[in-house]
Structure formats: C-alpha cells, structure tokens
Amino acid sequence: MWASEDSFTVDRRSFGRGTTIVDGNASARIRQAAESLGLTLTGVRAVPQVTRHELDLPRLALVHSWLNTQNEGWVRYAFDALGIRYDYFSVQQLKNRSCSSATT
Q1: With CB atoms 3.0 to 4.6 Å apart as the test, which of 2, 8, 48, 68 could cross-link to 52 if both were Cys?
Q2: Are strands 8-10 and 13-15 parallel, antiparallel or unpaired?
Q3: CA-to-CA distance for 52 and 21, rounded, in angstroms?
Q4: Residue from 54, 53, 55, 44 nearest 9 by CA
Q5: pLDDT band of 104, cuts 50, 70, 90
Q6: Count of beta carbons in the 10 Å neighbourhood of residue 78
Q7: What is the Cα–Cα distance from 52 to 97, expressed in whole angstroms?
Q8: Burial label, 62 (beta-carbon count in 10 A; 0-12, 13-18, 19+)
C-alpha cells in the first residue's frame, strides 16, 4: 500500500493528496476488508503514476502499571485472540527507556 503525495486524476475522477493506493492482486480480499470498514474503493486499470510513498504498519504498545490489571488483561486477551501484534512493557521500563519487545 502507498499514499499519494499529490492529487491525481484517473478516468476524469479526481483523487486528493494522501489517497491510499493498493495493488489489486488480492482484490477480493481487499474489497471484503474495505466493505467491512465502510470504505469506498475505486478500481483502475493500472497503478496511478503519481509520486507516492509506502505505508508502514502501525505499531502498538501496551504499558502495564500494576494499578488496573483486569482492564489491561482484557486488552491483552483481545489482542492475542485477534492476532494483533503488540509490545508489552512496564512503566518502569518506559521510565528507564529500556523497553524490550515482548511481541506476541
């Protein structure tokens, strides 16, 4: 996936700067994911020739403080059940900036 750095036009339709561009090799899977999120897709014959940059996956971290472990536990359970990768560390590690990745 890429983000366009400029606006562009394809088949007389305009797209703004920051438009997400996805290669259509997995079109059925992409369409299903987009529809489940309420996003609109527009198919084009070829990848638009516009300046763009590759998008990175977001990184998540969960910091525990031992003050409210039940809520933190439910968040960890949901992340684990959904297969969402995250880093897990304590407030002490954050304070010392020695956060080691305990990614699931």
Answers
A1: 2
A2: antiparallel
A3: 9
A4: 44
A5: very low
A6: 10
A7: 34
A8: middle
pLDDT-derived band at 15, boundaries 50, 70, 90: very high
Please give the C-alpha separations between residue 33 and each of 29, 37, 66, 84, in angstroms, as whole numbers.
6, 7, 36, 16
- Give residue for tokens 């997995």: 26
Q: What are the φ/ψ torsions at residue 36 (nearest 5 degrees)?
A: -65, -20
| pLDDT tens column, 40-80 | 888 888 889 999 999 987 788 888 888 878 888 899 999 99
20 by DSSP, 3-state: which? strand
Residue 81 tokens, joined: 């059940």
Rounded Cα–Cα distance for residues 100 and 61 (Å): 11
Model pTM greater than 0.70?
no
Query: What does the DSSP 8-state code read for residue 100?
Result: -
Which residue type sits at 44?
V
